[in-house]
Design goal:
Largest sheet: 6 strands, parallel
Bound molecules: S-adenosyl-L-homocysteine, iron/sulfur cluster, FE3-S4 cluster
Shape: globular
Length: about 450
């Protein structure tokens, strides 16, 4: 029996995908477990995107450090974005972790463990790389859902949005070879997966040699017409008509686009260094709807960025109404050390005001989501079944092509995860569609 590895993952889907890469790298020495109580090595795969995300990790870390005092031989490692951002700070006495390893240095973990076991070494590896994509490592997927998988196609980001820590924690943008992506997708299909989401901080700038993102999408879609293909995230400055053409030409590329806008005014977009205007964004939305009339659109919005005036806040609300988003991730601005905003602007919107603006944004989005979902009532939608929802009184749960969660009651019919079924939508809330099997 091998010792046990427990990985606790925070942050974005890239981090969840990386945890499966970590499990693969460590598979020769550890079996992965899903409870920390029996673990010999605990890795926390961390996120730095907002201060709150880091505080959550530090609180949890205190629990693990207390456990370590009682359990000789237990090792604790911090990996991911906080490892990169905080580096040595995490090795200080008070925290007592054994390993601090940034997102591009995971291949070094076995060596660091050897040094640790030999009683030496510092346990720190944080060099960012211009090449590393882990393309040759087959992720050991831990997710229970064997229907839908995330596949990372690129790493890093060099857009340097003024508020964002990612370029500093994940380094320069680099793309994984197309063949290794398509091979992985083929393998997933053979294992029974029916949906893949291609992942990157800015997938539209995927480039491997001559191959850009539209070509990659077409190749992945060709793996099997029964395989649903999704992607995240798109940067509005790079979303091309060529991609929209490819999406329109493939029935199995899902008409759902996550297009983070962040703010609705040109002045804010400029301060945020987003490199597009409100008009450009709205033109992209119009193009999307021209090619994909049935598309669902989601976004990310930040409330209370440095210097945000009430008028700018109102422009964000008006843009949300104009687009009519299906859903949104909405955040209060959090000042991040090292970013352009931290160095050059003042985080001057009082906390209570940020909260008020965020609440207005959330209230509006709830209205918009409900209005979008109501359009599905009475329609029959194709649902890829993911399983049975324990929380929702044993109803089946799945998604339609637009990525909306659909719940439906069991009938006589045998329905298994991975099946496609037709569901007539009878009711909805702002977050789910409810219906019955046709
Ligand atoms: N690469 C993706 C986003 C990654 S981070 C993209 O550009 O779309 C996810 C979201 O977190 C961002 O879209 C932004 O809305 C939010 N975010 C990033 N930095 C933040 C900060 N300092 N404070 C609050 N929200 C932030
Ligand atoms: Fe951050 Fe901007 Fe890069 Fe997205 S595109 S990860 S928001 S710097
Ligand atoms: Fe967080 Fe790093 Fe992802 S900061 S959002 S885990 S890229």
């Amino acid at each position: 029996m091998k010792p046990k590895l427990y990985i606790e993952t925070y942050g974005c889907q890239m981090n969840f995908a990386d945890s499966d890469v970590l499990a693969a790298i460590l598979a020769p020495r550890y079996d992965r477990t899903d409870t920390y109580k029996s673990a010999d090595l605990i890795l926390m795969n961390t996120c730095s995107i907002r201060d709150h995300a880091e505080q959550k990790v530090l609180n949890r870390l205190r629990e693990f450090v207390a456990l370590k005092k009682r359990r000789a031989g237990l090792h604790i490692g911090i990996v991911g974005c906080m490892a990169e951002r905080m580096k040595d700070e995490l090795l200080e006495e008070a925290l007592r972790v054994d390993l601090v390893v940034g997102p591009d240095a995971y291949r070094q973990i076995p060596d660091l463990l050897d040094q640790l076991e030999a009683g030496g070494g510092k346990g720190l590896a944080v060099a960012l790389s211009e090449e590393e994509t882990y393309h040759d490592i087959i992720p050991l997927r831990a997710a229970e859902n064997k229907v839908s998988a995330f596949v990372s196609i690129m790493r890093g980001c060099q857009n340097f949005c003024a508020y964002c820590v990612v370029p500093y924690t994940r380094g320069a943008e680099r793309s994984r070879p197309m063949d290794s992506i398509v091979d992985e997708v083929r393998r997933l299909w053979d294992e029974g997966y029916r949906e893949v989401t291609l992942l990157g901080q800015n997938v539209n700038s995927y480039r491997f040699g001559e191959i850009g993102f539209p070509r990659l999408m077409a190749e992945v879609a060709a793996v099997n017409p029964q395989l649903r293909v999704r992607f995240a995230t798109s940067h509005p400055k790079d979303l091309s008509d060529e991609l929209l053409e490819v999406m329109a030409a493939h029935a199995n590329i899902c008409p759902a686009i996550h297009l983070p806008v962040q703010a609705g005014s040109d002045s804010m977009l400029k301060r945020m260094n987003r490199k597009y205007t409100r008009q450009h964004y709205l033109q992209r939305v119009a193009a999307i709807r021209r090619y994909l009339p049935d598309v669902s659109l989601s976004t990310d919005i930040i409330a209370g960025f440095c210097g945000e005036t009430e008028a700018e806040h109102q422009e964000t609300l008006s843009l949300m109404r104009e687009v009519g988003y299906d859903s949104a991730f909405m955040f209060k601005y959090s000042d991040r050390p090292g970013t352009f905003a931290h160095r050059h602007y003042t985080d001057d919107i009082p906390e209570a005001e940020k909260t008020r603006r965020l609440n207005e944004i959330i209230a509006l989005q709830t209205e918009l989501s409900l209005a979008c979902n109501q359009k599905y009532v009475g329609r029959t939608v194709e649902v890829l079944v993911e399983g049975v929802s324990e929380k929702r009184g044993h109803q089946y749960i799945g998604r339609n092509p637009q990525n909306k969660v659909v719940l439906f009651e069991p009938t006589e019919a045998v329905v298994r995860p991975g099946d496609y079924v037709q569901v007539r939508v009878t009711r909805c809330s702002a977050v789910t569609l409810l219906g019955e099997l046709v």
